[in-house]
Structure formats: C-alpha cells, structure tokens
C-alpha cells in the first residue's frame, strides 16, 4: 500500500477546500498527534473500495445507532487526548 498525503486534523477547518481538492485526486490521511487516524476520499473512490469490501460500510445518516455510538465515543476520546 502506498503512503497517503497527510493533513493535520486542524486543517479540516482551516484549509477545507485544499483538503477536498487533494481528496478528489487521491485518498488523504488526516493525522492527530502526527499519526494517521482517518482517511478522506472522494465518493467515487469510496464506492470503488466498498464494492470490494468484506466489512460493513455505512453512510453516517444510515448507520445503525449502536455503531454510531461507538464511532462517536472513539471520536470523543481522540478529541479529549488533544486537550491533554
């Protein structure tokens, strides 16, 4: 697997259009504490990936409540680590 271009999580609010432009070209990694934590990609890239996936994939508004709660819990833990 090749290395993804990396952007800091803070860039999501500071440089949103740059991140979206980069994600249109290829998936990008969003880092927290200098470690890749999330991937941002175009919907076309996501759909290609999902077609071959063996794991469950959900759009946020269609995600089962129990999975959504787990995701929110994980995001809150990551955000709390930023405040340390």
TrEMBL record:
Gene3D superfamilies listed in its UniProt record: YefM-like domain
Pfam families, alphabetized: PhdYeFM_antitox
InterPro entries assigned to the protein according to its UniProt record, in alphabetical order: Antitoxin_Phd/YefM, YefM-like_sf
Domain of life: Bacteria
Assigned protein family: Belongs to the phD/YefM antitoxin family.
NCBIfam families in UniProt: phd_fam (TIGR01552)
Function as written in the Swiss-Prot or TrEMBL entry: Antitoxin component of a type II toxin-antitoxin (TA) system.
Name of the protein in question: Antitoxin
